[in-house]
Amino acid sequence: MAIEKMLLVHVLGKLDTMDAAFERVCIDEDFHPESTMTFLEDTKGYASVTQDNPYTPMLQALDELSKSHAPPLRLTPVTSPVKYDREGLRRFVDQVSEEFKALDRQYRALKEDISMEETFIAQLSHFTGLNVRLDEVFSCEFIKVRFGRIPRDSYPKLQAYEDNPYVMFFPGSVDATHYWGVYFCPREQAEEVDRIFSHLYFERLRVPGVNGTPEEGIERFQKKLAEDRKRLTNLINKIQASWKQEHEEIEKAYSFLTYLSDAFDLRRYAAKHGTLFHLIGWIPADKQDAFFHRFDELDAVEVVFEPPEEAPREVTPPIRLKNRWLSRPFEMFVDMFGLPDYDEIDPTTFISITYCILFGIMFADVGQGILLFIAGLFMYKKRQMAIGPILMRTSIFSVIFGFVFGSVFGFETTLDSLYASFGLSPFRVMEPDNITLILVASIAIGCLLNMVAMVLNIYSGLKRRRYADALFGPSGAAGLVFYGSLLAAGGLLFLTGSNLFSLPYVLLLIVLPLLLMFFREPLGNLVAGKPKIFEERVGEFISGNFFEVFDFLLSYLSNTLSFLRVGAFVLVHAGMMKVVFVIAELFSPVGYTIAVVIGNGIVACLEALLVAIQVLRLEYYEMFSRFYSGNGKPFLSIRSSKSQSQ
Predict the structure, then answer these.
(1) CB 62 within 8 Å of CB 93
(2) Which residue has the higher pLDDT, 207 or 24?
(3) In this structure, are residues 166 and 189 in contact, taking their beta carbons and an 8 Å threshold?
């Protein structure tokens, strides 16, 4: 559970050193910029720094090249100040951009020629049976010629126009829906004949001009098509070879231009006053010395560090989580809910432990757990999916609890010999007595996790000096005593019959905590030393808090019962696998094996998805709601800020 410590840093200097200073600020992307004018809004004489970024056109040119070629360009981080030749960069970008644009123009022209030739071949193929020279047909001075197609059901209707000697259609080929062919007519009759064929749904086709028959035209276009395809292959090889040769230098230029562009964009956050500039932002506290020494060569630049407490109240430090390898993948779930405030606890370790345990209980199967690990490994290694490492960790607990329940791909007797060697017997999920035990145990797990969440809330509230929530809130000390006392007395009564609900017990451990929760706001104000204890009228306070306390009681009940889904999914898994085996037994031995394999695949995929969602729901709604707000803002460098805005 760690949130990286931050420092507020002021970078000040002369305007003529601003570019050099901002380039040093952007090194390693460990600077989170703030709007400097927000800090200086009450100070006269400061103005924003606005200017068009001169590196944008060059970056856009390289971006366009990268989208058209593989491998794409990767950004190489800049780790130290670098001297550069701006004009040299511009010339290099112009050169490679023009070189590849010329090749791209040739590529597009060849693709268009090939597409046109393929179209012409397809068009001419419909008229190969006409046995006419197209050049002679199109050279007719007094006759109009129309190539095209007519629907099959319209073709017989031509007989209705037998009296008109100019309505004649000569089919060349036929397909499932149309006759393809040509009709002729004198120029003076063209309008009437076109109208008749239009009523018959004739679709005209523009046939390319060819010297000779359609067959001869197809032969010439096929020859030209083969030549152009060969030229295209050679051009593609040339482009790939050129890109491979230039790729390293282009990638260096792209990375450096991106770095310079990021540094220039810091002007949007800076302020100027006369001949001076001022930039404010956050850096990780452990980077203080390295950040300070970046400016050793710039005598006209001053760097000042301040602790977060000295920042204006409306400006909160950004959050960057810092967790160990085992729990780091679960930062994704924390980020989905919302990052913690700077003075709040980081719940990543908590969710990594509880999520794995709950998932393992609800998806308890040795064989399917191993398959889940393989799937997670594939997602992580081959697809770079963030969920992959999470599945790998949760699958380990699935295997562990699979051994507890004795389930291997749904077979509950596979491990009997292993248990017998240790003098043990497996836990049979579907036995009546065990069903009750599973449901009661799931409630007990929920009670335990709810109390752990309350303890975390107490710690977090005291750390943040929110005494009303920490001491007197429903998830604070008063709520913990109330909830724990009810559970202790109720559990003892259920298990042993002993009754702890005596008058002193009820008054001290149930009624008194309820009263403290009822008066949590005035008591919190009193502990915090605020002059005004009641922030509203007493009557309004009493009526409003009565319903709030009633809502607290309902939340205790609903949060506790919600954990029944843990036991329910244990039973669901066993029940679904029983259904798979019942269906499999309807087939022959080979069919039985196939049915079991398919059934395991369906159950594993469906249940893994449902369990993942249900456990996340328990984390967010039943546990996070008791101790966590998730209102923090992420740590974003200038590059990350631009990526999120796009």
Answers:
(1) yes
(2) 24
(3) yes
Task: Say whether pLDDT at 538 is over 70.
Answer: no
CA distance 615 to 617: 5
For every residue of 250-262, DSSP letters joined together read HHHHHHHHHHHHH
Alpha helices in 126-189 (DSSP H): 134-138
What are the structure tokens assigned to 435, written together?
A: 């069903």
**Closest alpha carbon to 333 in 88, 626, 628:** 628
CA-based nearest residue to 634, from 387, 422, 337: 337
Say which residues have a Cβ less than 8 Å from residue 117's Cβ, sequence separation at least 6.
Answer: 221, 224, 225, 228
Tell me the CB-side half-sphere exposure of residue 509, using CA atoms within 13 A.
16
Beta partners for residue 169, in sequence order:
183
Gap between the Cα atoms of 539 and 622, Å rounded:
32
Give SS3 for 6.
Answer: strand
| DSSP letters for 34-67 | E-HHHHSTTSTT-EE-----TTHHHHHHHHHHHH
Q: Which residues contact 179 (CB under 8 A, 6 or more apart)?
A: 149, 150, 151, 152, 155, 169, 171, 173
- Is 430 in contact with 575 (CB distance < 8 Å)? yes
Of 134-143, 285-294, 305-314, 389-398, least confident by mean pLDDT is: 134-143
Within 8 A by CB and 6+ apart from 103, the residues are: 235, 238, 239, 242
Return the structure tokens found at 513: 């905590």
Q: Would you state the torsion angle of the CA atoms of residues 130, 136, 137, 142, taken in this order, to the nearest 10 degrees?
A: -150
Q: Which residue in 166, 155, 160 sits closest to 192, CA to CA?
A: 166
- pLDDT (tens digit, 9 = 90+) per residue, 356-374? 999 999 999 999 999 999 9
Q: Which residues contact 561 (CB under 8 A, 6 or more apart)?
A: 443, 446
Q: Whole-model pTM?
A: 0.79
How many other C-beta atoms lie within 10 A of the C-beta of residue 37?
17
